[in-house]
């Protein structure tokens, strides 16, 4: 197939979109070329496009499809796997002009939103009507719903409520050739045909371009309260977390930080209020209306029974925000150690977590780079972070070798290389080992059905 000159594609885009919606200035292209991961772009994009409606997305898709031009859908670039990185000659489709909460329905308990809506803004909007949107990725203050859908984002409340896919009722999407479809009805139950909604969620923009999301909501929970407990060993903290999960007092948040992360946070943010010298910390919260006090009492008891050095109870908004602030600064603190970090996203059965953490400590000692681990211990999804100096080629090489070792370790322990960040570019090399040839073939077949010419976010996800 002979492609037209880039100027022809750009001329058609400019004719179809408002004058300021097609951007080609090199500085603007560079600013949108890479997400928050350590994975670089794989090419120079042709343009950034800013559609303001489904009709404009459809127009861009038709032009791109006709000329064989790749499209990379982008949100806030908060991703950590290179899933929204530029590829050569691509149109970077940015949804900052499609950022409206279109409808909040208290009766059906749904919110209908455009993909550019910021996660926390949606949470605040539905809370004003006594409703609750549970998914809360650590980047909720700037990540977008479209990006959350693309990666099937999780967060700290997954242990109780589940991930983004569990709250997506239906999607409006534009297919690679410009057709617009809805993936299902917005009802609570809908099993007609295959689950295309669930398939598009987590597909990282490789199957369709999401232009509208209908999300299920819940009634507002109770006020958060809980404990911050420190332990002399990580193993003590893991035993405590296992007992909490196995018991009747299900937490809404159950997070672990190891010694390396605790030290990094204290150095990065001396006002975080974290204790010095502990080797592990658990953050355990409940949002139950009626039994919240009983939950907190149970968490205190279990922590003490497993040798906790300190147990601090937080029941007011100020104390809770301080605890969450420390947890949310995890990645920034690890990156500050040496200037760069690779942020992993492995998930293993909870029974294998002690071995995972022991092996990570051994790996850190062997390569001479700090590896700090924290994350969602309640569901086995941890985020080892490898700190390195990005200006030192030796450290860069060691960090990337450690990255490969950690992915292999997750598979060895019966887990996955990504629990919530996605595959993107960063983890392509691990897919054969995790999925096997038959599943890989099936997934490539699905991609070919949705996107036969391969223009949607090529080189990502599969």
Question: Count of helical segments?
Answer: 15
For this structure, the CATH topology of the largest domain is Vanillyl-alcohol Oxidase, Chain A, domain 3
Q: How many domain regions? A: 3
Supply the CATH class of the largest domain: Alpha Beta
Instruction: Describe the main β-sheet briefly.
Output: 8 strands, antiparallel
Mean of pLDDT: 95
Give me the secondary-structure category.
alpha+beta
Second-tier CATH architecture of the largest domain: 3-Layer(aba) Sandwich
Cα-based radius of gyration, to the nearest Å: 22 Å
C-alpha geometry: globular
In the predicted model, the low-confidence regions spanning at least 5 consecutive residues are none
Distance between the termini: 24 Å
Percentage of residues in helical conformation:
25-40%
Strand content: 15-25%
How many strand units?
19
CATH superfamily of the largest domain: FAD-linked oxidases, C-terminal domain
Give a brief rundown of this model.
Helices cover 37% and strands 19% of the residues.
Could you describe the 3D structure shown?
With 462 residues, the protein is of the alpha+beta class. The chain folds into 3 domains: 6-94, Uridine Diphospho-n-acetylenolpyruvylglucosamine Reductase, domain 2 (2-Layer Sandwich); 101-219, Uridine Diphospho-n-acetylenolpyruvylglucosamine Reductase, domain 3 (2-Layer Sandwich), CATH 3.30.465; 225-412, Vanillyl-alcohol Oxidase, Chain A, domain 3 (3-Layer(aba) Sandwich), CATH 3.40.462.10. It is built from 15 helices and 19 strands. The chain has helices spanning 6-16, 26-31, 54-67, 119-127, 145-151, 158-161, 196-200, 234-246, 259-268, 292-305, 317-328, 330-338, 353-367, 393-412, 431-450, and strands at 22-23, 47-49, 71-74, 91-94, 101-105, 110-113, 131-132, 168-174, 180-182, 209-216, 218-219, 225-231, 253-258, 280-286, 310-314, 340-343, 346-347, 371-376, 381-388. Strands 12, 13, 14, 15, 16, 17, 18 and 19 form an 8-stranded antiparallel beta sheet that branches. Helix 1 runs antiparallel to helix 3 (54-67). The longest helix has 20 residues, at 393-412. The radius of gyration is 22 Å and the shape is globular.
């Amino acid at each position: 197939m002979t492609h037209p000159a880039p100027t022809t594609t750009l001329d058609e885009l400019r004719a179809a979109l408002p004058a300021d919606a097609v951007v080609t200035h090199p500085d603007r292209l560079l600013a949108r070329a890479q997400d928050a991961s350590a994975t670089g772009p794989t090419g120079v994009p042709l343009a950034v496009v800013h559609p303001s409606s489904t009709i404009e997305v459809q127009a861009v898709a038709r032009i791109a499809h006709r000329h064989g031009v790749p499209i990379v859908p982008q949100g806030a670039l908060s991703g950590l796997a290179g899933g929204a990185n530029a590829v050569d000659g691509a149109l970077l489709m940015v949804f900052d002009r499609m950022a409206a909460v279109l409808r909040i329905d208290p009766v059906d308990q749904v919110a209908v939103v455009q993909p550019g809506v910021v996660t926390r803004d949606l949470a605040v909007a539905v809370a004003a009507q006594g409703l609750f949107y549970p998914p809360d990725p650590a980047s909720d203050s700037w990540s977008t719903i479209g990006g959350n859908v693309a990666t099937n984002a999780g967060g700290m409340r997954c242990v109780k409520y589940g991930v983004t896919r569990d709250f997506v009722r239906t999607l409006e999407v534009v297919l690679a050739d410009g057709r617009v479809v809805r993936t299902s009805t917005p009802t609570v139950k809908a099993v007609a045909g295959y689950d295309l909604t669930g398939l598009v969620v987590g597909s990282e923009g490789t199957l369709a371009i999401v232009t509208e999301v209908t999300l299920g909501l819940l009634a507002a929970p109770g006020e958060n309260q809980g404990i911050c407990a420190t332990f002399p060993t990580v193993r003590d903290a893991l035993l405590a977390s296992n007992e909490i999960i196995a018991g009747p007092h299900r937490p809404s948040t159950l997070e672990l930080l190891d010694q390396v992360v605790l030290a990094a946070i204290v150095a990065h943010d001396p006002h975080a209020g974290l204790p010095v010298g502990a080797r592990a910390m658990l953050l355990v919260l409940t949002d139950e209306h009626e039994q919240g006090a009983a939950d907190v009492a149970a968490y205190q008891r279990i922590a003490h029974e497993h040798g906790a050095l300190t147990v601090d109870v937080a029941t007011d908004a100020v104390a809770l925000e301080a605890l969450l602030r420390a947890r949310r600064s995890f990645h920034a603190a690890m990156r500050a150690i040496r200037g760069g970090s690779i942020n992993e996203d492995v998930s293993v059965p909870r029974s294998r977590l002690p071995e995972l953490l022991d092996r990570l400590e051994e790996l850190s000692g062997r390569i001479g780079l700090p590896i700090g681990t924290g994350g969602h211990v309640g569901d086995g999804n941890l985020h080892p972070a490898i700190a390195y100096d990005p200006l030192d080629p030796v450290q860069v090489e060691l960090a990337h070798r450690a990255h490969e070792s950690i992915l292999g370790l997750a598979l060895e322990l019966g887990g996955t290389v990504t629990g919530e960040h996605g595959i993107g570019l960063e983890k392509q090399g691990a897919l054969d080992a995790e999925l096997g040839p038959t599943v890989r073939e099936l997934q490539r077949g699905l991609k070919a059905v949705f996107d036969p010419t391969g223009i949607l976010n090529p080189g990502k996800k599969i």
